Amino acid sequence: MKNRLFGFLQILPHDVFTFVGCVTVIVGMYLSRAMISIGMITLISSALLNVKLFSNLRSFIQKPHLLMITGYFLLFALSYFWSDDIHYYKERMQIMIPFLILPFSFIAMNRWELRWYDLLMLLFILLNLSGIGWSLHEYYQQKEQFDIGYGFSKVIPTPFKNDHIRFSLAVVMSICFCVDLFSRYSLPFIRALLILVIFIDIAYIHILSAKTGIVAFYLVALIFIIQIIFSTKFRKLGVASLFVIATLPFIMYLIFPSFKNKIGYFRYSLEQMNNTEKEANISDEGRLISYQYALEIIRNHPIIGVGIGDVYGQMKQRYSRDFQDKEVTTLLPHNQFLMAGVGLGIIGILYLLLLQFSIFKLVKRMISFT
Prior knowledge:
By secondary structure, this protein is mainly alpha-helical. It has helices at residues 2-11, 14-31, 33-48, 53-61, 64-78, 86-95, 97-107, 114-141, 143-149, 159-162, 164-184, 188-208, 211-229, 235-255, 257-273, 283-300, 311-322, 336-369. The protein has two domains: 63-98 and 280-370, no CATH class; 114-267, no CATH class.
């Protein structure tokens, strides 16, 4: 029986299963959360039903960063014992399941040929481009209304269930993937298409005007340009690119009304922050208020926090206390360290810092190796 099981596991096409799992997760990001779940189930099933299961487990244990990512999920799972709102606890833990499933799933994957990774990147780029097309179609159906809405912190519809922050970051990733493919493929036709996609992505990210995506784009671009400037071969290109990236926001400001109105709203929100009255429904000030409430909760529950199940309830209590007669949206702190602090206290913050340091050491070692 043991030999039959061993033989069966040997003939399973694990590479195909993991590739299909990755494809399903990527497609699910744009179309269906159910597909994301199916893709992750496929990945973990391929990892567990594997003839190399025990050797993969040993390899997994020897990877501190993977252990710590899994441990991050387990630490939040432990907060069940001091969370009162079990329903919300279950919701948050479902969101965090990738921290549990993906680390071991990826360590169990064989090293694919480079073209397999390129196919995944190409799929991501095409899906992202399709998402941009759909978003722009919705935008131009009611362009004037959307442009006006940007003066009140409204944004155009996006994939990822209208999560414009995550989609803007996906657009930045698409740009990075295009640059990587451009550097490795010399066919003029392919390079021309990649440049076209990059231009579309850059234009869209300014039309969308999500602050997180814009900051990420300019930060990545600046780092890339600095690397070019310090290379002896492309120094002039780097200086020219620096001039382009410095003038780009001004050009986009003149071309796209949504970006112009978003800048205007940002100025308005900065002015409102100087007022003594709190305004929770103003985007930037609302975020700062959520940070203040999170810090207050951490001060009141410094050791183990309130439990991930009670994060929303604790935040809502403070909004209700300070905005009794106003309709305000209860925001969770858009900061992973603060979320860890509210849910797990100082222990969660220190753990997340150690996890970041572990990943930083790994990236630094990989860069020095290459």
